[in-house]
């Protein structure tokens, strides 16, 4: 158990009622102890404070200032469930030591644990220990514009607080324009690992020569008139094509084997206690997701036709034990629009750089749907994962709680949420709602849905 695990949260609530009568005031003090003992069952006995807070006294008078500030924390409890010995370093054995009653006492005790007020003070970085164990060859990756700086700052802060401050994985930022100083300063101040800033080569963010730009323009005008989201955007199309076919080949990304994609303004609602990269390595997974849903059909009208063409031309790339069932309800005839939501992904770069994936991407790219329609990288990655990977190479992370507007993945299972100190509302969990495809993933893989799947979101 980690050092902090025996931390005891104890609230002492004093309710002082003043009762007025004709001739006298009477003060009544109520003590209310709430103990949060989920870690290691540290028990709190209301009688613990009896010696100091004798009933007869407390009914007669309100507690003095000294008493009020007294036993908020208890030293001896910290050793009750934790035999690691770590805690003794930080918590005096004698419970009375915690009765911080005077400045002199604080100064005396404080010498042992000086406050770190400035970055160069000892202990500044010691918020909680670094996770032991190996690190994978992995990085976070974010595609962003300079104007996204404060939205990505929010994401980084959450990723760091919930996970990376203990792991310190690198972070690669990619942009079709050079990153400005503000972007670099803000993001590098938040990331605990090394940060790298890459410019996207022009040829990865422009029309391939075989694209008829007039035709593409007409499509955008038409989609604009039909109010299709991002339908009139050129940059969005370059972005989707880049995420589909190029980010993993950026020179900076060649230094890594695994990636975790992070977008601006996402949220992580729960602690991530283990290294998901290592889970992928140990379980031999190539792709993972937390949210799945149906794609907007208007944006991918011929994507499945292109996919079928690829399957016919490259039967050697289709995995025998694939997830076609996730993608199609009629054995591959049509696409059911199910996809993993790719704004969150943890996956293998080597897989994306493999011949099978590149052949798939290039085949789609030649058909032009990134510009003649508005193919998203989510269905492209998902179809690839569904067909090129074995079904047990795709992982669902129930533990990683996630939000990207407008959908939430809040872990199913109350105990899980408590253990991970989640701050999401289980009712917001999208997994088992009608527009999610996650049930299909469970059925297809013969997985048992977590307890609470049928009740918590209602
Ligand atoms: N450098 C750059 N990044 C972009 C551009 N458009 C979108 N992005 C990034 O691509 C990702 C997806 O874009 P976003 O606006 O979040 O699209 P949505 O999640 O589909 O609504 C985000 O990480 C954006 O920061 C662009 O024109 N240039
Ligand atoms: C990480 O992976 C990349 C890509 O495969 C490789 O070039 C690099 O040497 C690896 N780094 C380490 C430290 O193993
Ligand atoms: Mg986004």
UniProtKB/TrEMBL annotation:
GO terms for cellular component: Golgi apparatus; membrane
UniProtKB keywords: Glycosyltransferase, Membrane, Transferase, Transmembrane, Transmembrane helix
GO molecular function: alpha-1,2-mannosyltransferase activity
Residue ranges of the region described as Disordered: 46-94
Low complexity composition bias: residue spans: 74-88
Membrane spanning residue stretches: 12-34
A single BP term in Gene Ontology: protein O-linked glycosylation
InterPro entries xrefs: Glyco_trans_15, Nucleotide-diphossugar_trans
SUPFAM superfamilies: Nucleotide-diphospho-sugar transferases
Assigned protein family: Belongs to the glycosyltransferase 15 family.
Protein name (database record): Alpha-1,2 mannosyltransferase-like protein
Native source organism of the sequence: Hapsidospora chrysogenum (strain ATCC 11550 / CBS 779.69 / DSM 880 / IAM 14645 / JCM 23072 / IMI 49137) (Acremonium chrysogenum)
């Amino acid at each position: 158990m980690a050092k902090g695990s025996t931390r005891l949260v104890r609230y002492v609530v004093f309710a002082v009622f003043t009762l007025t009568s004709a001739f006298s005031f009477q003060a009544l003090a109520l003590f209310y102890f709430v103990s949060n003992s989920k870690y290691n069952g540290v028990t709190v006995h209301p009688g613990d404070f009896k010696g100091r807070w004798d009933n007869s006294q407390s009914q007669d008078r309100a507690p003095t200032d000294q008493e009020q500030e007294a036993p908020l924390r208890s030293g001896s409890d910290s050793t009750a469930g934790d035999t690691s010995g770590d805690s003794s370093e930080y918590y005096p054995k004698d419970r009375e030591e915690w009765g911080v009653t005077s400045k002199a006492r604080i100064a005396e005790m404080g010498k042992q644990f000086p406050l770190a007020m400035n970055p160069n003070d000892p202990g500044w970085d010691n918020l909680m220990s670094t996770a032991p164990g190996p690190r994978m060859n992995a990085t976070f990756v974010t595609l962003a514009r300079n104007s996204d700086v404060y939205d990505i700052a929010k994401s980084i802060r959450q990723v760091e607080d919930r996970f990376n401050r203990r792991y310190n994985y690198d972070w690669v930022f990619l942009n079709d324009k050079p990153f400005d100083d503000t972007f670099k300063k803000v993001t590098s101040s938040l990331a605990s690992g090394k940060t790298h800033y890459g410019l996207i080569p022009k040829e990865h963010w422009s029309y391939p020569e075989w694209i008829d730009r007039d035709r593409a323009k007409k499509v955008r005008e038409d989609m604009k008139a039909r109010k299709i989201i991002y339908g009139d955007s050129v940059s969005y199309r370059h972005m989707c094509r880049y995420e589909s076919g190029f980010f993993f080949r950026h020179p900076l990304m060649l230094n890594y084997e695994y990636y975790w994609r992070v977008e601006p303004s996402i949220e992580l609602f729960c602690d991530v206690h283990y290294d998901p990269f290592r889970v992928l390595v140990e379980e031999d997974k190539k792709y993972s997701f937390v949210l799945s849903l149906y794609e907007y059909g208007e944006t991918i009208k011929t994507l499945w036709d292109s996919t079928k063409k690829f399957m016919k031309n490259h039967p050697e790339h289709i995995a025998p034990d694939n997830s076609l069932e996730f993608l199609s309800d009629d054995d591959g005839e049509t696409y059911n629009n199910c996809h993993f939501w790719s704004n969150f992904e943890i996956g293998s770069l080597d897989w994306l750089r493999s011949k099978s994936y590149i052949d798939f991407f290039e085949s789609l790219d030649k058909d032009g749907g990134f510009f003649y329609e508005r193919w998203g990288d989510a269905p492209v990655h998902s179809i690839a994962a569904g067909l090129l990977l074995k079904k047990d190479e795709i992982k669902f992370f129930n533990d990683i709680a996630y939000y990207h507007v407008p959908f939430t993945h809040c872990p199913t299972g109350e105990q899980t949420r408590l253990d991970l100190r989640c701050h999401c509302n289980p009712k917001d969990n999208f997994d088992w709602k009608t527009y999610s495809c996650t049930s299909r993933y469970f059925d297809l893989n013969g997985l048992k849905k977590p307890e609470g799947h049928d009740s918590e979101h209602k």
